[in-house]
Amino acid sequence: MNYFYDQRWCGQHGIGRFASEIGKQLTDFRDIPLATKPLAARDGVALSKFLRRNQAKLYVSPGFNVPWKLSCNVVVSIHDMIHVHFPKETSIAKAAYYRLIQRPVVRRSALTLTVSQYSRREIVQWYGIDEERVVVVGNGISESFTAAGPRFSHPRPYILYVGAIRPHKNVECLLQAIKRLDATMTPDLLLVCRPTAELKQWIVEAGLTARTTILSGIDDTQLASVYRGAECLVFPSLYEGFGLPAVEAMACGCPTLLSDRTSLPEIGGDAAIYFDAASVDDLRDHLHRFLAGAVDRDGMIKRGLQQASQYSWEAARRKVRDSLVQANLLPA
């Protein structure tokens, strides 16, 4: 059969990691050999022509891209709805793409994949489709992320943030919370991200230049050691479809302080401390209690390891395959 999987999404982080891992299960699928990237303006047309020319029966994307014209069954993966809740983070062209091109295709699809129950509810509402046609396959944790292993060497205790620097990530809230900590508490801040000019300005304004280290371009083995060495991970995001750093940290034995918004309480369960992401003072207060030893750190680590054990790429891959079969898109 002519089944195609859009391996062009494959990469190290975010959707790229999901794409790489899910593709391991779909060995009977062919790759998309197009030179265009999935988000390129002309890719929808090129993809449509390719699928029609190759008489495709099924196209599965680990991302949200779709062919502009349908000639086969299409299954896409929608990880979040950031474009709806944070329109300033998307372009006018991309917003139009979602509304005028992608949404009609998703509405006609027999199956759509997502990563959390929160995202599933959002998809059902915005796309106006039956909830039975949206399946949560989850995310997994790569083998590098374990509690056993070396710890990152840093001269002082540090609080950790892992993720992008975008408005919904709310990193400025973390910087301001650390700035407002009691003078007797002076942890460093380690950011694993691609630095931006805006981030550097926030660090200066918070007076944290001497206490902040930025790491970028590190691999999973290095990132795991950074998780293990941290006092805690703080994830102040205002919106997440899943929140992979939270469970990666837990798998490495790193306590987590998470925003109480969107999917994070679902993903973190009872293993995390939750704070109001709209309140710098609330985050500061929870950080103060944690750093002062007023919480059961060992208990958090134990619960975190248990919570992280629920997420595996093997289970996610199996769920994708089973869902395609149940939707009669693949033979049993």
Automatic annotation (TrEMBL):
Q: Which residues form the Glycosyltransferase subfamily 4-like N-terminal domain?
A: 46-142
Molecular function, one GO term: glycosyltransferase activity
Task: Provide one Gene Ontology biological process annotation.
Answer: lipopolysaccharide biosynthetic process
Supply the SUPFAM superfamilies for this chain.
Answer: UDP-Glycosyltransferase/glycogen phosphorylase
Give one Pfam family, short name only.
Glycos_transf_1
- UniProt-listed Gene3D superfamilies: Glycogen Phosphorylase B (3.40.50.2000)
**What InterPro entries does this protein map onto?**
Glyco_trans_1 (IPR001296), Glyco_trans_4-like_N (IPR028098)
| The UniProt record lists the keyword Transferase | yes
Alphabetized, the UniProt keywords read:
Transferase
Indicate the segments forming the Glycosyl transferase family domain, all copies. 153-304
Protein name (database record):
Glycosyl transferase group 1 family protein
Protein's organism: Rhodopirellula maiorica SM1
